[in-house]
Amino acid sequence: MAPAAASGGSTLPSGFAVFTSFPDLLFIFEFVFGGLVWILVASSLVPIPLIQGWVMFVSVFCFLATTTLLVLYIIGARGGETSWVTLDAAYHCVAALFYLSASVLEALATIGMQEGYTYKQYHENISAVVFSYVVTLLYVVHAVFSLIRWKSS
């Protein structure tokens, strides 16, 4: 299978075709699970404020940027330009890197909070770590297929 066929073509879809093409279908899952990470991190207690600040920044930034890109693709604001394919690939690579760093830091903070915190607080942080790694995986897969699309455009 050719790379263009594997990634759903060399152009970005517009309109509601965004919801039926791969890897653009992953926007929905990035949106849902990214929002869940945002909620879990905001409600959890992290012993190191700097770590929580970075994880919150990453989750909010990626949530808003993903939402913005999704809306722009749906309304067809790209106008068929190939620079949007480059933007899509670059954004998803940066988002994957940001989320990987945030996931590792959140896991490190969670490991360090086994004592002195309630059972509920500890499990909220574990949930945030798990979903953060799920979102990281989604962004990595989206980045790989966006890079394939970028290369073939």
From TrEMBL:
Sorted UniProt keywords: Lipoprotein, Membrane, Transmembrane, Transmembrane helix
GO CC, any one term: membrane
UniProt xrefs under Pfam families: MARVEL
Cellular compartment(s): Membrane
One GO BP annotation of this record: myelination
Membrane-crossing residue ranges in chain numbering: 27-46, 53-77, 89-113, 125-148
Family: Belongs to the MAL family.
Name this polypeptide is given: Myelin and lymphocyte protein
GO molecular function: structural constituent of myelin sheath
Membrane topology qualifier: Multi-pass membrane protein
InterPro entries (UniProt xref): MAL, Marvel, MARVEL-CKLF_proteins
Superkingdom: Eukaryota
Gene name as annotated: LOC111158472
Residue ranges annotated for the MARVEL domain, each copy included: 18-151
